[in-house]
Design brief:
This protein is mostly helical. The chain is about 80% helix and about 0% strand. This is Tfp pilus assembly protein PilF.
């Protein structure tokens, strides 16, 4: 008897498919056709859904619900003009049918007119007896226009209707994260868990919020509860491993990563984390083994190639480091971080022209960090191009106008060029900015510290600052 409802729901489908095979014509209630069409739409069988709509409308030509399903398929296939004409006809018959407004909203949404879609969905909301699906659609429309606050409110409504609607729960947390309201997300999830204490999804999300706030003990507890709620939840083991890494408990982290591999097909990300843990424990052979497993599992995972690069770079094997950073660049040549790493490797190899090219790529791809400008300028100096070095520092100064590191370095470079006027100006600016950082100049350019005129400047600035 327990299987009877499923049996009943499947009978119209089986009967319909039998009819298609035999070319017989069977009669169905309009509600049966709706069930059949929904079944095919849910399974992506559009051709069968269209066939069911056609036969359904032949048997029930006045059925508004079947016509609306016809509209749904037309919209899915981007046949907007025919769909809108049909909706116009239906609205004359039933102007208070919320589904008409929903389908019009779908058309506007597919045309990227999300504000109009929102207006229509709000009208549908006024007419609807049950609003769960409409709030879900509204949430998505607000996401399209980056209104995360209203998107969050609508997805929250979905969760309040059905607390097992994990898709909406994920969307709520996504909105909190985008708004950088981690405290709000934590409060919301804790409130949700008061009502659903064994929801592994919520515990998992809560752990991730604590992790974002570097509240590692709380994150660890959350992932433990996720595992208690579902001991086959691979994601919880993986995230727990990341927390244990942050806490320096590398052996325990390894156990959790190994659990994920034992429970399902191994992933490149799990191999990568295992490699990192073993490297921290100075198990270099194991670290290298897992790094190579990472790129074997997913040759396109550039982070795997970068991990191998760093492994060799830290051990002074710059030739191998260069080989593997080029592997990463072949996968993602637009990554400024990789070009910066490449520049450092060429610097270590004393290949300054290539280091200069790599830093140029780094900056062109949007890396404007202070040490990028300083190191690039130093490379230009080593290439005996002080003019280029000063141009680089001038560019860097636009981003860091108060940086004494840039000012002292510029002063030194001007003096190396025997441009005492600009050297004097840069030195005075730097000393006025922070005289306590004078060592930055004297350590790098000790030959100028002993100059009488430099000593006079330093004395004058010290007296003025008293």
């Amino acid at each position: 008897m327990a299987l009877e409802p499923n049996g009943k729901s499947n009978r119209p489908i089986a009967k319909f498919e039998s009819m298609l095979k035999t070319d017989d014509v069977y009669f169905f209630d309009a509600e049966d056709f709706e069930d059949i069409i929904h079944h095919y739409l849910n399974h992506g069988k559009i051709a069968l859904a269209k066939k069911a709509i056609k036969i359904g409308l032949q048997q029930h030509p006045a059925s508004i619900e079947l016509k609306l399903l016809d509209v749904e398929v037309l919209v899915f296939e981007n046949n907007f003009e025919v769909a809108e004409n049909l909706l116009d006809e239906l609205q004359l018959l039933d102007c208070n049918n919320e589904e008409i407004y929903i389908q019009r909203a779908n058309i506007y949404s597919k045309k990227d007119n999300h504000e109009a879609a929102i207006t229509l969905l709000n009208k549908a909301l006024e007419l609807a007896d049950t609003s769960f699906d409409i709030h879900s659609l509204l949430g998505m429309e607000y996401l399209f226009i980056d209104d995360f606050k209203l998107a969050k409110e609508n997805f929250m409504m979905c969760v309040s209707f059905d607390e097992q609607d994990y898709s909406s729960l994920y969307n709520v947390i996504y909105c909190f994260e985008f708004l950088e309201d981690f405290e709000g997300a934590i409060h919301y999830l804790n409130d949700y868990l008061e009502r659903n204490p064994y929801c592994e999804v919520a515990w998992h999300q809560l752990g991730k919020q604590y992790f974002s706030k570097e509240m590692y003990p709380e994150a660890l507890t959350s992932f433990d509860f996720a595992i208690i709620s579902d001991d086959s939840f691979i994601g919880a083991y993986f995230e727990k491993g990341k927390v244990l890494e942050k806490l320096g408990k590398y052996n325990e982290a390894i156990e959790n990563y190994e659990t994920t591999i034992a429970m399902d097909d191994p992933t490149s990300h799990a191999y990568l984390r295992l490699g990192k843990c073993h490297e921290k424990l100075k198990n270099n052979d194991m670290a290298k083994f897992y790094y190579y497993q990472t790129v074997h599992e997913d040759p396109l995972l550039d982070k795997g190639w970068l991990a191998i690069t760093d492994f060799y770079y830290r051990r002074g094997n710059y030739e191998k480091a260069l080989f593997y950073i080029n592997k990463a660049l072949n996968i993602d040549g637009e990554n400024s971080h990789y070009w910066k790493k490449c520049a450092r490797i060429y610097t270590a190899l004393e290949d300054y022209p290539q280091a200069d090219f790599s830093y140029k790529q780094t900056v062109e791809l949007g890396n404007y960090e202070l040490d990028t400008w300083l190191n690039w300028a130093e490379i230009a100096r080593r290439n005996d191009d002080l003019e280029a070095a000063l141009q680089i520092l001038t560019q860097g100064k636009e981003f860091y106008p108060e940086s004494v590191k840039i000012q002292f370095k510029m002063a030194g470079f001007y003096l190396l060029k025997q441009d005492r006027i600009n050297g004097r100006i840069s030195l005075i600016d730097a000393l006025k900015n922070d005289i306590e950082k004078l060592y930055l100049f004297t350590d790098e350019f000790p030959q100028f510290e002993v100059a009488e005129w430099v000593q006079n400047i330093i004395s004058d600035i010290k007296r003025a600052s008293r």
